Amino acid sequence: xxxxxxxxxxxxxxxxxxxxxxxxxxxxxxxxxxxxxxxxxxxxxxxxxxxxxxxxxxxxxxxxxxxxxxxxxxxxxxxxxxxxxxxxxxxxxxxxxxxxxxxxxxxxxxxxxxxxxxxxxxxxxxxxxxxxxxxxxxxxxxxxxxxxxxxxxxxxxxxxxxxxxxxxxxxxxxxxxxxxxxxxxxxxxxxxxxxxxxxxxxxxxxxxxxxxxxxxxxxxxxxxxxxxxxxxxxxxxxxxxxxxxxxxxxxxxxxxxxxxxxxxxxxxxxxxxxxxxxxxxxxxxxxxxxxxxxxxxxxxxxxxxxxxxxxxxxxxxxxxxxxxxxxxxxxxxxxxxxxxxxxxxxxxxxxxxxxxxxxxxxxxxxxxxxxxxxxxxxxxxxxxxxxxxxxxxxxxxxxxxxxxxxxxxxxxxxxxxxxxxxxxxxxxxxxxxxxxxxxxxxxxxxxxxxxx
Length: 452
What we know:
The protein has helices at about 15-20, 25-40, 45-60, 80-95, 110, 115-120, 135-150, 150-175, 180-195, 200-215, 220-245, 255-285, 290-315, 345-375, 400-415; strands spanning about 1-10, 25, 65-75, 100-105, 125-130, 325, 330, 335, 340, 440, 445. With about 450 residues, it is α/β, with parallel strands linked by helices. The protein has 3 domains: about 1-140, no CATH class; about 150-200; about 205-375, no CATH class. The protein has a 5-stranded mixed β-sheet, with helices on both faces. A two-stranded antiparallel sheet has the order 6-9. The chain has a two-stranded antiparallel ribbon with strand order 7-8. Strand 7 and strand 8 (about 335) form a beta hairpin.
């Protein structure tokens, strides 16, 4: 078994420093090459790579294996010419020594790109990368930075913001001051990080695609979404107006509760309009309406009532709004006096009403979705009547394929109508004949008319 221990040098550092042409083959030739490279450049890591090749070859020889150690180098003109030069040298080595396997020794990630070329020509049993201990961290950092700079998306994401910051900060520092400039740049960087962290660009692209598809397909939800957006702005405006009427109220709890109390009806109406438009699109489409779209309007109304009830409770306890008063009325025999509903009673009324509405919505959604499932669930149509002589349909639950085949074969062999008469139950005799009827001696047949 012959093993080729090959040292790869893609950029031809060996030939550039010693003036020798590759490949360099043989133990003595490689050991002499170590001295030449070390004298030319003692700091070159290629010296360690050559020594590692000799060490691997010596270990394999100690295991009684036939070893060929060689150094192949590329070209300095271009990477393509370098790879082709290495491939040609490998072809010559394989043709001369016919190795069964190879051990590759490299000292950099750049040289490791030649490994597929070696693998395409001979089986590679091991790859030995030599890293000088004093320069391990430096070399790893160098290759990480090199890969980072080669990635266009990472360059645009990291280097562009850093470059803009370095350009803008001196301008802001000279015009508005260093503190204000640093604050403005920090704010922009923070917004950019949030923008990338929450994938806002993907969300906006998806929203634009859905909007374009909705416009082209003529969906009703486009109009209802616009109406819902208008109702949302009205709700926000009404809530802000209610907060402004409070004056100088200390704290943030009462203003926030007032904002929720005034804006919730409009916001709930906006959500109800949007969900109604989506429900209409589902109803117009060919697919059955999903249960979630049926239940959504009821959930929106229920949540709006709950929020309205709790905000009204807190505001009434603080004396911001007046209690709910049921006025007196006269309707014939039905009459009542003026009734004042306290905060707890109002909250209970809103909560109970919300629960009832959510239960009604769940019941309606369940019944409608159940009716769609029943309509889609079919049993393959009515079964064929056995009296017709045809076997049941294969879609039927009690279809017996062998029995049906035998029935068809019997009918083709004996097409006598009486054989398949459903009124005959005793092997061909008439079921209406008297049980005491015997055989007629003159005719040779029985009373039922059946031949012996």
